[in-house]
Amino acid sequence: MRSMNPSTRGSAGSSSIDAETGHTPDIHGARLAAGEYAHVFDDLHPPLTRHEAIVESDRCYFCYDAPCMNACPTGIDIPLFIRQINAGNPVGAAKTILSENILGGMCARVCPTETLCEEVCVRETAEGKPVKIGNLQRYATDVLMAEGKQPFKRGAETGKHIAVVGAGPAGLSAAHRLAMKGHQVTVFEARPKGGGLNEYGIAAYKTVNNFAQRELEFVLEIGGITIEYNQTLGQDITIEALKAGHDAVFLGMGLPGVNDLGLAGEDAPNVLDAVDYIANLRQAKDLSALPVGRNVVVIGGGMTAIDVAIQTKKLGAVNVTVVYRRGQESMNASAYEQELAQIHGVVIRHWLRPHALERSGDGTVHAVTFEYTGNQDGKLVGMGEYLTLEADQVFKAIGQTFDPEPLRGSGIGMAKGRISADAEGRTTVEGIWAGGDCVAGGKDLTVASVEAGKIAAESIHATLTRRPQAVEGFAEAVLSGGAHHTTAPSRDRNVPSDQWATTQLGNEQG
Known about the structure:
It is built from 18 helices and 20 strands. By secondary structure, the chain is of the alpha/beta class. Pfam families: Fer4_20 (PF14691), Pyr_redox_2 (PF07992). This is NAD(P)-dependent oxidoreductase.
């Protein structure tokens, strides 16, 4: 059995503690000086100044058949909004962005632009240095929100009432689009705050200054949307009651569950769900009170694993190791996020899967034993060799799951453990739509959930007003992760700059 010394490359090491005598994990808060927390959790990407935004926007070629626009799941007209910034019209740019993605401010902060719009930027292809699309999007939306402007008008009251389950990205996107069409919307949210993943699941250093709640307030300013908090589907509300009391129902409750390791001892008090820990960190009034281990082991290879690893390191953990069962290229976390973790001192180890949680006499876990893995004929297999890493704190970050129990008996079909929905978000039950992470085949990205909510809202509106709905490409955009547009990308970029926002929003304010 191999072991690793905790001083080696900053990683956790094999335990030398006698498990029979018990072990007290080295977990406590206040590992940093009181004044350090604000600094280490400061904005990961400080916003652009006006001058920086103008200079950066000048790098854009303003392509007509723009690959960046095709790579955006919500179909934002990226060349148009960058040109508006370049012309000194950031508010118009924000309107262009928000007309397609009402959560464009948050997406500017958390979108993996390096694998979406910026990856296909012509500048990236030619020079290896793309236009900073995400930063420019943040600049524009920040300016609009700072000025307190509301670019959307609520349509004439239709008399229709829609229930939305979940105040996350999909639910808020659907609610806003439906309210804009003149419908009354009630959102039922299980938690005491809205925002979903944006409020509870995004790393604190990516969304500072309570931005998720400020963006939520911006969404609600259009009117016609009421949020009922602490309302859990299956406990406080039921599908049957929602359907009976509303003209349509949209399900956007995300993925509330977390996959288990399937190992004895994972109920130990120092073996935690990474999702819950991040949520607690985001809601903490005093970060110094949040307990963190000296030696931290994170099991998983996605964004949640990287986020919890970086944040425990920022909280003062000495050794943080992310362990993933396959190779680097198979990790769901982008290459950029992996590099960010390593810059912060996190060690990432590959081709290891959890084999056993080593417990002490007091029931806590003091180490994790991993088995080396390999790829044989396309299958992951154990190699019969093992590595033990000392751990005061172990985080499970091996994916989230959908809880189908609240839907039992409703007739709503399931596929691959999630809700089955068609290209417009319709479920197998008439009058019920679904979108976002809770739908089978969905890409687990905030921006994809926003698009799913928008598409479903358009379908609901068309159904309730008995007009034909023409939505193309949804399957590719949401089910397969590609891009599409709900309106043809044919805006005339040669019109005067003071008319660009009006041209963009002409059919969005009715």
